[in-house]
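Lab notebook, page 48
Experiment: co-folding of the full assembly
Goal: obtain a model of how the components sit together before planning crosslinking
Operator: M.T.
Materials (sequences as entered):
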Amino acid sequence: MPPDTTNYMLLGYTVVTVILIALVVYLVLKRRNLEAEIHTLESIDEEDNKNALKGSDMAGKDSPATSPTPAVHPR
Amino acid sequence: MQAEQVSPLDRYSPGRTRILNLLSVVTAISILLALGLALFYAGTDAVQGNVQKIFYVHIGAFTGGSTAFFITVIAGIAYLRTRNPAWDRLAVSSVEVGLPLMTITLLTGMIWARPIWNTWWTSDDPRLNSMAVMWLLYAAYLTLRAAIDGPERRMRYAAIYGILAFVSVIYTFMVVRVRTDTLHPCVLGPCPGQSTTKGSFAVEEGPMIVTISIGSIAWMLAAFTLIWHRLRMENLAERVRVLKAQVMGQ
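Observation: model returned without errors.
Model output:
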């Protein structure tokens, strides 16, 4: 009759399951955060480009002779 | 710092995403199959009882972790030859996947040792010590990387470190096969210290061989899949860095 070491076996398999789930959850959450960050940064970049274009148009209308260079973005 | 351009190859293509999704499903099924075989098919050891079933995960996780660290070596060599940052991203992704797998190996070993050796850990055993040193070396890889200034310098040092650190993996694998004073069981292959090991068992029966083989393949597959996911994340992080540089007007 083998000794009853089932509790240790269960502890081992629990540890494995917890580590694997933690790893997968970490990957999912980190990826989600990065995608959200990319979305935000792309929106800011797009908005900045629009503003820069608008700024250069305005400058062109008001004083074409005094602003030969494109508008420089403040950031 | 000059913003690095993200290669178009780093962008997700639907075909690759489909392959990765399929690989993820196959990996999940394989791991469940491996666990199922270990629990219900391999049989119960007459001397150790159910705790011996931990060995199937213990060996499998070591195989997966070693595979991940070997990919770090390949990526390190490729980086030193090409200086392409994509290889560095693969190297760090592999370490970040290999380390949790080696943590599983360490912890399952300790849990098995408690009823068999009557202790969680012994500092006299060369296999246990080499395993601990290996784990610390790869943990230090991640810490040291973060501490080095300058991306090119960081990538170069990390590549060299990743290649050299693999010596610890080879030593950990070989130590029970060359040393005669180890307590750690040597399950596969001829081992000189077989008389001093405690808790050894022979892998001779069909179900045990099948379980160990399928388990090892499943854990290797898990390493590949997790590295691929982690690499995509690293590529996303690179894109964030590039976008931040753009927005900040650099």
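Interpretation: Helices of chain A lie at 6-62.
Next step: discuss with group before ordering constructs.
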